[in-house]
Task: structure prediction
Amino acid sequence: MENETGDVLLIGYGNPGRLDDGLGPALAREIEKLDIPGVNVDADYQLNVEDAAEAARHHTVVFADADTGGPEPFWLKRIEPAGSGVSFSSHSVDPRAILALARDLFGAEPEAFLLGIRGYEFNGFGEGLSERAEANLAAAAKHLEEALRRGAIEEIRPEGWDHSRLRTGTESEDDR
Amino acid sequence: MAGGYKKRVIIEPVTRVEGHGKVSIYLDENNKVNQARLHIVEFRGFERFVQGRPFWEVPVLVQRLCGICPVSHHLCAAKAMDKIVGVDKLTPTGEKMRRLMHYGQTFQSHALHFFHLASPDLLFGFDAPVAKRNVIGVAAEYPELAVQGVMMRKYGQEVIRATAGKKIHGTGAIPGGINKNLTIAERDEFLADIDQMLEWCRGAVKVAKDYTVENLEKLAPFGSFDSNHVSLVREDGCMDLYDGVLRAIDAQGNIIFDGMDPQDYLQYIAEEVRDWSYMKFPFIKSIGPEDGWYRVGPLARVNACDFIDTPEAEAARKEFMAVTNGKPNNITMAYHWTRMIELLHAGEKIQELLHDKDLQGTDLVAKGKRRPEAAAILEAPRGTLFHHYRVNEDDQVTMANLIVSTTNNNEPMNRAVRKVAEDHISGVPEITEGLLNHIEVAIRAYDPCLSCATHALGKMPLEVVLRDAEGKVVDRKKTA
Result:
């Protein structure tokens, strides 16, 4: 079932009821509206094991999540499958683990990227993004739209790039 | 209170448990466990969040509580709002669509819990290397099981998508009914795969049963203790995960109360607050806080019901009850076996519903006379879930009280942690990772639902509080 659809899957994840944590689903909503040919869009509260089955059916996968402290307005990084040492919980599965499951269970190795959009407000219940997060979302959506229409996604590493503080293991070995 | 301890071992975060928790183990000068506690970072603010919101928004709003069981909150709130709009009985299409959604939720959650969370411990042992003890390890050595777990979870999620409308902010259930039926195309898509799902369910029951029976000597004392059990049942005593009356039994199977109307839950259940935990500790009022705590979830449901109305799950239930000669089973690790019995039951229910033409009906919403207050109870995958609301004349929610499954299991989880700590850590000079995992194995039997926390990159809202023997805070650390 490798690359059955031969196109792009965007998965935006996060909780829209926790302010800027909803940046991932918000990006998914923006891209879905564009109805770009060959681009499938999904959104959920968090990644989970079944996303591996869907990822395996696509040539390229973009995971989009809110980032609490990274460079503004967003970053975009190529990621590879990884299993050992990757954090697991039913609350959220690391995107690299999704790729590892896609490879190990379904024999597929889609090209994959992680898109982190900088957010600021995470510590309350409430719907809606902060003003600055909205601006970062707009920048990320614009960039991703252009990349998807062009058919070429490339890494974006803004000034101040530092993955060492990330605790979800999204950095690859060469970033450490 | 843990007095006189010398060393403290803190495990955090508890892995493969939703959200975030912290376990504190208090050791005395001889490395004996003095006290062990599970602290859960739970945000009680949600009950305030819904205040002031129009009541018809609540079934959608409450899904933000939990990323794993949003459907349980969605349906429980909708059931409460049915009462608010004066509807005591839904249309057949409304009732059956909601049940299909609920069994889809149970199906995906139980599959995820067993294959993704628990199976690494069962397949590789509690002391296996941590790098191996995860679903990637299962995928490497047991790829067939791993694929089954992933595909069953996906099937349940697709049932939810078809009945709730979408994965995030599903709007399927509305006060008094539902807003869509199931199309023929959707039905046929699910029917095409249901036989395969049921076959895998049978295999999952066998895996859980064989593991439990073969390791009974080791598992029976593991984090175990006698307890009361609370569950919804149908009025005739049948297992019913969506609706019914509340029943409580003691550790020997004697009825404590039965046939309780969900509207009257405050007459039977109270909640105690303790100074060391953010979470409440519910108990059965007639017994009191000391001995009135209880367990909920698959083990409690299988113990409390008289029978299951789907044939294969009922046969599996009888096999399970035979282990204890028909008496309640109080083995904590038996949660997994009962969870798989419920997985099979949910699969059978989904199959039964898919063949029911009422799912294509067009009478979706019932009407009634407004009420100011309502409570509802649902059996969420991890256990009994209570939603209670008051609504004013302007249709705004003025009060919300939620008792989630994890809260109901709060005291049992603490007891399980303490029991395992006493049995496996006391007297050991060095705390190994394998020993620490024993604690986590006990917690994972219940699988607390702590997904009220955010999970964004770089964010892990953990707080460590150190207290001395008098309870004084000597250090406090919060992760960035």
Summary: Chain A touches chain B through 54 residues (CB under 8 Å). Residues 37 and 80 of chain A are 25 Å apart (CA to CA). The radius of gyration of chain A is 15 Å.
